[in-house]
Design brief:
Helices cover 22% and strands 27% of the residues. By secondary structure, it is an alpha+beta fold. Strands 1, 2, 3, 4, 5 and 6 form a six-stranded mixed beta sheet that branches.
């Protein structure tokens, strides 16, 4: 393993184990650094956004994303998923220590760059470039050009994966 990854425990898996088919849910966190000056120590792990963000507007826009939807507008080109229907079980936007804002996404699965596109869109809402109501319209449009930009990869963290005891039913 690379030096920045440690194995804490190992257990045997069934012969038919497939992490994609057995996964029940994932939790991603996106870290924003909100202040005028950059932080050289967190530059690799956060997206530095200078403009203040209206978290109330961001939460209002995020409410439209929660639930079962066709997320085609939030799907990157080259995505190999058979369909864009996903369920976002929860979205939390909260202030964190040291000038950070964390966006936590809980879902049954995510499309290619889906979380990063949702973050880019919600940042535009927070900056006042888009209205929260436009997020609903983006979902309905089912076209990538309607959503906001893709946020940089450096702020995205996979926090946890919920794996079941058996494969999940096929979508």
């Amino acid at each position: 393993l690379p030096s920045d990854i440690s194995c804490l425990s190992v257990q045997p898996a069934p012969d038919d184990f497939d992490p994609r088919r057995w996964t029940r849910g994932k939790h991603y966190r996106y870290r924003l650094l909100l202040r005028q000056s950059r932080c050289c120590f967190r530059a690799r792990w956060t997206w530095h956004v200078r403009a203040p963000l209206d978290r109330v507007a961001m939460r209002a826009g995020g409410e439209f994303l929660v639930g079962a939807h066709d997320f085609s507008s939030f799907r990157a080109s080259g995505c190999g998923a058979a369909h864009a229907r996903r369920t976002l079980r929860g979205l939390q936007i909260r202030d964190a220590p040291d000038d950070e804002v964390h966006l936590d996404f809980y879902g049954n699965g995510f499309l290619r760059h889906q979380v990063r596109i949702m973050v880019g869109t919600l940042v535009e809402v927070g900056q006042g470039r888009r209205d929260a109501e436009e997020v609903r319209e983006m979902l309905e449009a089912r076209h990538r050009a309607t959503a906001g930009p893709t946020a940089p990869a450096r702020g995205l963290w996979l926090m946890s994966v919920d794996v079941g005891d058996t494969p999940r039913p096929q979508d």
